[in-house]
């Protein structure tokens, strides 16, 4: 009872401080809100929307179950999740945060995986996409495409390592029938499952696509709200002095790992919002590049409270618990930082030593006509078009129900 009352007081004080800070720093709040909105408007919405819609349609048509049967021999022994986890992992890596949580929750709602399997799966399928790592962080912030190779390898190897560790999670809670695959993998069995799922799907194609669009846009609207909110919170924490205060404690941790304490403020900012944290990390000129890459790798792995809040909101739509995901993010941050250190010694220094001058342009180069630049240019148009379509479908659906 006492603990509950203390929690109530703490939450009340925290939200009151935030409200007062919004009044005390109106211009800073507007600037931070605009920055978060631009990120969602130009990058997040247009890049995630196609993946969300396609994944919903693939699940409805049974393609995910088809893939699951074929990948069962790989995913079950390694990660103790069904074969459909391979689809979630691939889509999560391709589309970025928080797609892994979205797809895992959808599979749980379809009862294709158990709760324990879903909690294992979501712990290692929420990844940063290659476009963000190479385009925004390595080239955009660090102006060095080679760093993207280190960050990407550390990030994805760290995710796989977390998945291998989390396979031991929930062993006592898992039903015995989930420990072994129920069917032998074969193309015939996979096609049978695909066909049966399509037959069981009673919605016509038009309705299925419309529901996929509605569900995807609703999720992305929620994501946009969290991005804006945590962008403002991060800015306010800096102006009221909390960032600097907590950064003093982080300095002790960084010194223990022989990393410059000057990276404490970027690390704390990255704990709330990973884009700002990586940008601030790249701008610290008094530390070595290796230290900055290690911290950037940890920030990417932890993915910030902004992304974690998005994941928590998505997981709340099912019975999947958030605590295993949060524990996995802390574990991933340390593992990814360790991988970055190892890869720097083994890979980056050798690449730099033997690098020859080249006229080749990196795939994610932020120059004229690059994919990233095109996304910045046409992203808002895609967002507007999708929102107009959403309003049309929403009005149509509600009008039909009223009749």
From TrEMBL:
Transmembrane parts of this sequence: 48-71, 83-101, 121-142, 149-169, 217-238, 250-272, 292-314, 326-347, 378-395
InterPro entries (UniProt xref): Gate_dom, Spore_IM_YlbJ
Name this protein carries in UniProt: Sporulation integral membrane protein YlbJ
A Pfam family assignment: Gate
UniProt keyword terms in alphabetical order: Membrane, Transmembrane, Transmembrane helix
Cleaved signal peptide residues: none
Record-annotated Nucleoside transporter/FeoB GTPase Gate domain positions: 44-133, 220-316
């Amino acid at each position: 009872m006492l603990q509950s009352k203390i929690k109530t007081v703490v939450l009340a004080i925290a939200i009151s401080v935030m409200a007062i800070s919004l009044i005390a720093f109106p211009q800073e709040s507007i600037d931070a809100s605009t920055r978060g909105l631009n990120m969602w408007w130009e990058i997040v919405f247009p890049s995630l929307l196609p993946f969300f819609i396609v994944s919903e349609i693939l699940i409805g048509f049974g393609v995910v179950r088809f893939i699951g049967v074929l990948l069962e021999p790989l995913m079950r022994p390694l990660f103790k999740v069904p074969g459909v986890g391979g689809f979630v992992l691939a889509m999560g890596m391709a589309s970025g945060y928080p797609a892994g949580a979205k797809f895992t929750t959808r599979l749980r709602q379809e009862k294709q995986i158990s709760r324990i399997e879903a909690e294992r799966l979501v712990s290692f399928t929420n990844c940063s996409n290659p476009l963000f790592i190479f385009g925004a962080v390595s080239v955009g912030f660090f102006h060095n495409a080679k760093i993207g190779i280190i960050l990407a390898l550390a990030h994805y190897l760290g995710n796989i390592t977390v998945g291998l560790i989390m396979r031991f999670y929930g062993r006592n809670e898992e039903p015995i029938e989930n420990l072994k695959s129920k069917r032998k993998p074969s193309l015939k069995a996979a096609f049978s499952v695909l066909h049966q799922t399509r037959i069981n799907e009673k919605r016509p194609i038009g309705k299925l696509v419309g529901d996929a669009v509605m569900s995807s846009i609703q999720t992305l609207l929620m994501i946009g709200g969290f991005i804006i909110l945590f962008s403002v919170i991060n800015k306010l924490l800096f102006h009221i002095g909390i960032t600097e205060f907590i950064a003093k404690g982080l300095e002790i941790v960084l010194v223990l790992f022989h990393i410059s304490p000057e990276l404490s403020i970027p690390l704390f900012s990255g704990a709330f919002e990973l884009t700002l944290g990586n940008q601030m990390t790249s701008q610290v000129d008094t530390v070595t590049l290796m230290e900055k890459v290690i911290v950037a790798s940890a920030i990417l792995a932890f993915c910030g409270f902004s992304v974690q809040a998005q994941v928590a909101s998505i997981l709340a739509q099912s019975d999947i618990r958030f605590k295993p995901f949060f524990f996995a993010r802390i574990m991933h941050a340390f593992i990814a930082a360790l991988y970055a250190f190892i890869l720097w010694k083994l890979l980056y220094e050798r690449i730099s030593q033997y690098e020859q001058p080249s006229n080749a342009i990196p795939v994610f180069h932020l120059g004229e006509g690059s994919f990233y630049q095109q996304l910045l240019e046409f992203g808002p148009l895609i967002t507007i078009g999708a929102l107009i379509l959403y309003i049309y479908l929403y009005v149509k659906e509600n009008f039909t129900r009223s009749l």
